[in-house]
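Table S2 (text version). Query chain:
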Amino acid sequence: MLPPKERLVDAKLNRYIRNKLYWVLHAPRQVGKTTFLKSWVREINDSGEAVACYVSVEDCQGITDWREGMSVIHKAICDYADWGGLPVPFIEDREPEGLLRGTLKRWAELIAPKPLVVLFDEVDVIQGDTMISFLRQLRGGFADRGVGKFPVSIALVGMRDLKDYIVASKDGRVPNPGSPFNIKEDSATLSNFSRDDVTKLFALRTAETGQQITQEALDYVFEQSQGQPWIVNSLFKRATLDILDEDSTETVTLANVEDARGKMIMARETHLDALAYRLEEPGVRSVIEPIFTGESDMNMARGEAFRICLDLGLVALKNGNTPAIANPIYREVIARHLTYAEQMAMPDPEWQWEKPDGSLDMDKMLEEFQLFWRENSELWESKTKSNYHEAFPHLLLMAFLQRVLNGDGNVERECAAGRGRMDLRIDYNEFRYVIEIKLLRSYHSPPAFLKKSLAQVRKYRDLFGSQTPAYLIIFDRRPEAKEKTWDERITWEVDGDVTVLGC
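Corresponding structure-token output:
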């Protein structure tokens, strides 16, 4: 374990208690918020300068009646106080309008002569009027905060910043400056692991067990996770415990971590499944779809949905300002989730797609895809229940490739909003292939579009060597394309070192 305190961004822990400040900590799930809170509680209590308690309000999940919500929060405070060996501020027969304020006031009295610090976790599950009452009662006690009167410092911790909680609670209306929690000092967050953090984390295991790891394996863990702490830990855990013997000191290699990656994705672990589940929400779709297709959408970053995707950790800003899926693991999980139904509906391939030397017969495979597109695309697109209609060509091609390879190869995806394309890299045995997917729209000039597309696919191909087979697949999404016959729409040309397919 690495101390999560070291990854705090914009936090001023040394001031919060001394200066009696209230603050917010927000970060995506599984980044280390709860681990930090519990470790900080121990640190505060061991120092003797104050009494701190961790309180999770997760039991408020799904509660719509604010009166019931206040009762649940009161019970949570009493339970966590009891579990922490602290005086329990139980209050009987208190009206819900003042239950939280009264509970915290009573608790501060019981803790005196030391100041009380309360760290509320999972605050993002509180909704609607319950959230408004929760914040309003905290504000009501803020002016009187002090030893024996009210908690001197309170942290609200969850996935989202405070303003987002209030906006959500007020049906999207931005709150006025005085309502209902204008007492926040800071909004802090927890960063992902840096590359050095990933190295330090495994070094702790090496010091404890003697087990080593290769540098290329460490580099792969960071590349695939982009430092997302849950993914880093999961890859290390599977590579060391599931693949190698638990007591083994055998060096962890790149192959071990690659195997761990595949098993983690196929296991559909809760963290990954929970993210995939959010993809069906219309707001999340409005962000993820243009990233997948590479389209430019000026409205994508304007709404609350974009902030939600950032808060979930699904999306990150690549190179500072380009929205992209946060890491390759999430890209894989999203692609598999969105193409699952199509994969299950496709028959097993009956044609030979592997050559005697172990390479893919990419020409044959893509000819079969063109045939499949010709015979099924219009019907499947009309019947799909997915909301990702703009990304349908990308998803169908990925489903086809995944179905054919059936786990024997690896498909890496590169996508970001505004790039106008999706890049695929297929690794199969010792062979590598690149595919670029483009959508031809009515506003494009076909000659200029083709010229730019060829330049893009060659630039991507050259990252892996100029001899890497390269394919450009253009889906004609212009309305007039439907007036053409399929013989006119399905094309196959070779432009120097790039094979160009029309669909």
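Notes on Table S2: The chain has three domains: 4-190, 195-267, 338-502. The chain has 18 helices and 14 strands.
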